[in-house]
Design brief:
Layout: H1 16-40, H2 47-58, H3 66-82, H4 91-94, H5 103-121, H6 125-130, H7 137-154, H8 156-161, H9 169-188, E1 195-202, E2 205-212, H10 215-224, H11 226-250, H12 259-306, H13 324-349, H14 355-387, H15 394-415, H16 424-462, H17 466-495, H18 515-528, H19 534-557, H20 565-573, H21 576-603, H22 607-643, H23 657-681
Antiparallel strand pairs: 1-2
Length: about 675
């Protein structure tokens, strides 16, 4: 593990140059993430590439250290997560409520939701970071990168003296170069595919065997471990071994529809709601199990304010969170500002809405966003700790939120006659628009919560000062919030969104799909039209409840066997192109661990003695895989955005796709085998 800066050390952390560098990286990564999220429905975690860039820049400046680099990556990490708000906001254009992205409303929603996400997770730091055994894969990887980079820059003599005996920067570099080369060949040159799938049928039931070739996800899976990996595999089998075959067997094909198209459509339109139901009940159960620890964390934080834990200045440096008085004051101010934002939104939508109904909707929306956002913060922090920020299903949380807020608004419209006085078109559109607007706040809270605890884990491992990290994240939220609206407007006016084109005569084939926003919009419309896939959601709830019972039985039996229900829901909700690389990485880690145990028995030595160096090498190589692919993802996003072409670097055409799939599979397998051999080779001497 990384070397921790001692509590008594006083090194520069939150510096002006670091804040400026973090703001520049935030701008770059936010723009890239917004484009990728609208194009393919995925964003990348920006903390690790931000750490690499920060080290490359600040190592040329006197006095730079890994705590300062940690602050830069903490600030810039807000870009990779706050941009998840694009999973909802484009829906306001798709329903015709907005004709563009109002700068101040969009900025306010992003900033307020993001900062609330930071504040809500501060009381959970001790319980879920310091005292928890959650793996936090990206947090650990970032800490390793900061540690190795710091030693490489500041202690070159140590690196030389330990050459051949201690894995270090060369392992991260090796993993990064391999992942970068693969990503350029697949995402840029297109000579390798990024996934492969094979469809076959048994009677009328359709089955798919598929995997993506993301080496970053393999690295994340390695860090997640076998328990989380097997849970994701179980979810994948439920979706693609049971649900999709069953639905395809009872659903006739449409005219001209292929088996693969039918299977994917049924998964997208029905099976994902099973995953959403499983994630929903797992999130509720997680909140229930964390309720007591959360209260302890909150009480500890408030106790520090009252002097029960000693004054802020008397606390150990690495235990100083933002004081509870500041947290409560900022939260109150933000909720007041949120009330103003919702009031402006509602008044613009329906200026003739009666006073009582107006304030009921306004304050009810704020209350729901505030309370539900706090509960979701804990669940998202737990999920990020379990499977990593990149794999945490933030859009799944959005689904739970949008269903709940839509049901509340549906009940209000049924009980209130205030909508009868409105124009019929306004009365029809207003509940849908308000549901999406409220959900956007919840999603911003969830996204930053998903990231904050991961960053605080990194800070805990390297010995950072928590309150300074929390300030850095707030700065990142403010910078990212100001970048998102103009980027959204630029992309909308350049390409348009599926179902929402800014001008006549634009090519719909070039429109950005915004898949999550389309799904959220479909859910809201389904609730108000009374045709939502409730059966699938209830099936997911039932599956989740049964799995919770199994997990509790395993827990009571003791041992390491567990069944994380959230991870199972992730396996159902996310496509196999994302799930399977995670599973493969987890299996690689398990196979390596088995081999190390066998070596220890054969040599008659303690496992820790035999496995220490290989385990460290595995973490560093896995971190390198994440770094390499993430950096290339930023580079390719910028090239695609500047060129306006979907594949500006492609060397081959669509006719090469079948060959690229098998070439990609061969190279992917070779890299995984090489990873296995490289890690085990470190203990051969």
């Amino acid at each position: 593990m990384s070397q921790r800066i001692p509590d008594e050390a006083r090194l520069p952390e939150l510096t002006l140059r670091g804040v400026i560098l973090g703001a520049v990286i935030t701008l770059l990564f936010t723009a890239s993430n917004v484009y990728l999220g609208l194009k393919v429905g995925l964003t990348f975690a920006s903390a690790i590439p931000a750490a690499v860039i920060s080290m490359a820049v600040l190592r040329r400046v006197a006095g730079a250290n890994k705590l300062e680099n940690n602050m830069v990556q903490t600030q810039a990490s807000a870009a990779g997560t706050l941009s998840a708000i694009i999973f909802v906001l484009p829906g306001l254009l798709m329903i015709g409520y907005w004709q563009g992205f109002p700068f101040w409303q969009t900025t306010a929603i992003c900033a307020i939701g993001g900062i609330l996400g930071v504040l809500y997770t501060i009381p959970l730091r001790r319980v879920m970071v310091v005292q928890s055994d959650l793996p936090y894969p990206e947090g650990i990887a970032a800490a390793e990168i900061l540690d190795v980079g710091s030693r490489a820059a500041d202690e070159p003599g140590t690196r030389d003296s330990q050459r051949g005996s201690e894995p270090g920067a060369r392992e991260i570099a090796l993993g990064g170069i391999v992942a970068a080369a693969f990503s350029i060949a697949s995402g840029g040159l297109r000579v390798l595919a990024d996934s492969i799938s094979v469809w076959f049928s048994a009677g009328r039931a359709a089955f798919q065997l598929a995997t993506g070739f993301s080496l970053a996800l393999v690295g994340a899976g390695y860090l997640v471990g076998i328990v989380g990996g097997l849970a994701i595999l179980i979810g994948t089998l439920i979706a693609w071994g049971v649900a999709v075959p069953w639905l395809t067997s009872i659903t006739p094909l449409e005219a001209g529809q292929s088996l693969a198209d039918a299977g994917m459509a049924l998964w997208s339109e029905k099976v994902r709601f099973i995953g959403a139901g499983t994630i929903g009940i797992a999130a509720v159960w997680t909140l229930a199990t964390l309720f007591k620890p959360m209260l302890i964390g909150i009480r500890t934080s408030i106790g520090a304010m009252r002097g029960e834990q000693g004054a802020f200045r008397d606390q150990v440096r690495t235990e100083r969170d933002l004081p509870a008085a500041i947290i409560l004051a900022l939260t109150g101010v933000l909720l007041v500002l949120l009330t103003l934002v919702f009031a402006v939104f509602l008044h613009g939508a329906a200026p003739q809405l009666a006073g009582a109904a107006f304030w009921t909707l306004t304050l009810g929306s704020v209350l729901f966003a505030g309370i539900f956002g706090f509960l979701i913060a804990a669940a998202c922090g737990y999920m990020a700790g379990l499977v990593g920020s990149s794999s945490s299903p933030i859009s799944g949380i959005g689904i739970v939120g949008v269903i709940l807020v839509s049901l509340l608004l549906l009940g209000f419209t049924a009980l209130s006659d205030a909508f009868e006085a409105l124009d019929p078109e306004v009365a029809r559109m207003l509940p849908t628009a308000l549901a999406l607007f409220v959900t956007s706040v919840i999603l911003a809270v969830a996204a930053i919560s998903n990231d904050n605890l991961q960053d605080l884990k990194t800070g805990y491992l390297v010995g950072a000062t928590p309150w300074r990290q929390q300030v850095a994240l707030i700065i990142g939220c403010l910078v990212g919030a100001m970048v998102i609206p103009p980027v959204l407007s630029l992309l909308y006016n350049a390409y348009g969104f599926a179902g929402a084109m800014p001008r006549e005569g634009m090519d719909p084939g070039q429109a950005l799909g915004a898949p999550q926003a389309s799904l959220m919009t479909a859910i809201v419309r389904g609730v108000f039209a009374h045709d939502l896939e409730w059966a699938m959601i209830l099936i997911g709830l039932g599956i989740g409840a049964a799995l919770i019972v199994v997990d509790e039985l395993l827990r009571k039996r003791g041992g390491t066997a567990r069944l994380p229900v959230l991870a199972v829901g992730i396996g159902i909700y996310l496509p196999p192109s994302i799930n399977m690389p995670l599973v493969i990485g987890a299996l690689l880690g398990w196979l390596i661990e088995r081999r190390l145990r066998a070596r220890a028995r054969a040599r008659g030595e303690a496992l820790e003695r035999v496995a220490e160096r290989p385990r460290r090498r595995g973490v560093l190589l896995a971190s390198g895989l994440i770094v390499g692919e993430s950096l290339v993802g930023v580079l390719l996003a910028g090239i695609i955005g500047l060129s306006g072409a979907p594949a500006p670097l492609a060397l081959v055409g669509a006719g090469f796709a079948d060959v690229a799939k098998w070439l990609g599979l061969v190279v992917f397998v070779l890299v995984c085998v090489g990873f296995y051999r490289r890690v085990l080779g470190s203990s051969a001497n």
